[in-house]
Amino acid sequence: MNGNDHPISRRTFIGSLAAALAAVSFAPPGLRAAERDLIRKTIPGTGETLPVIGLGTSRTLDVSGDPAALSGLAEVLQAFFDHGGELIDSSPMYGSAEQVLGELLNRVGRRDKLFAATKVWTDGEQAGIRQMEDSRQKWGITRFDLMQIHNLRDWRIHLKTLQSWKAEGKIRYTGITTSHGRFHRELEEILRSEPLDFVQLSYNIEDRTVEKRLLPLAADRGMAVLVNRPYQRGDLFRRVKGKELPGWAAEFDCTSWGHFFLKFIVSHPAVTCVIPATSKVHHLRDNMAAGFGRLPDTAMRKRMADYFASL
To answer: Which pLDDT belongs to residue 143?
Structure first.
């Protein structure tokens, strides 16, 4: 993989982030002209950039056979693309999510704007190949941008397939995932030894375990980082229920608790993209708005963490 042997410093990440800001016409309404910038970050191995807010599909898209739910989700997907979204992440583990996503993409279109990311979640080489081909057909795409090994399952076998597929042009990037804070020790060993392009893990303002070892390691190894569970499955919102944002949150264009939590995540120099999942259009629009304007710096991130811990 390009860049795996060259440590990426925090300064380099910040410089790449600043260089990647680009003004776009689909910024959320209500922002001042100076704030109408879509924040993009660089995939270290290639220099390609991604918007820092993506879309997860766990639970929210497992609605096959429900016409009303599908109609609402089509609005969500349309709003995602309208607000500059690109990366959508799914998995065969998520019930009917991949089939539903394919149906939604047929309704909405915009596959030309899609950065398609899914996972392999089974045992055995041939079973993995069949599953990944099945996922591609469900999505209705010619190839995935990113294929990840879900929760390290049979990772040695699947990694050989992913490396072969990448060399053949069947996928563009390889990755591995974990969630709920599991398998960190084994994941660290894998990141140290294997030439992966992406790693996906859980990280939020309450659960900051990965700041100690995994995020610095990913940066040193030149790996992009996707973040799941940004709201700790809603726990963060329950904690701040009835509490107003601090006034100083406006200094980084933050107008909701959702912005507060997402901007904390994506302002970490090692993080490339966060993938909140939602089935509600107004939540989607709020999530996407966190990907515009300014991000907190190091001192502000500490202030945010200290403030949240005091609640």
So the answer is: 97
Q: At residue 144, what is the residue type?
A: F
CATH number of 10-310: 3.20.20.100
pLDDT of residue 120: 98
DSSP E strand boundaries for the chain: 22-23, 37-38, 40-42, 49-51, 55-56, 87-89, 115-120, 144-149, 171-177, 198-202, 224-228, 273-274
10-residue mean pLDDT profile of the chain (311 residues): values are 41 42 47 68 97 96 92 97 97 95 93 96 98 98 98 98 98 95 93 98 97 98 98 95 97 98 98 98 98 98 97 94
Q: What is the distance between the alpha carbons of residues 52 and 262, in angstroms, rounded to a whole number?
A: 9
Q: Residue 58 CA to chain centroid, in angstroms?
A: 12
Burial class (CB in 10 A: 0-12, 13-18, 19+), 6: exposed
| DSSP state letters, 216-275 | HHHHHTT-EEEEE-TTGGGHHHHHHTT-PPPGGGGGGT--SHHHHHHHHHHTSTT--EE-
Q: Is 181 left (phi over 0), alpha (psi -120 to 50) or beta?
A: left
Give 94's DSSP letter. S
The helix/strand/coil state of 81 is helix
Give CA separation, 73 vs 16, 52, 99, 118, in Å.
34, 21, 13, 19
Using only the alpha carbons of the chain, give its radius of gyration: 18
With CA atoms as reference, report the closest residue to 191 among 161, 221, 168: 221
The whole-number pLDDT of residue 13 equals 42
By C-alpha distance, which of 282, 290, 213 is closest to 255?
290
Distance CA 257, CA 240 (A): 8
Q: Residue 193 and residue 29: Cα distance in Å, rounded?
A: 45
Give 177-196 as a 3 state SS string: ECCCCCCHHHHHHHHHHCCC
Torsion sign across C-alpha atoms 238, 268, 79, 36: positive
Look-up of token digits 């990440």: 13
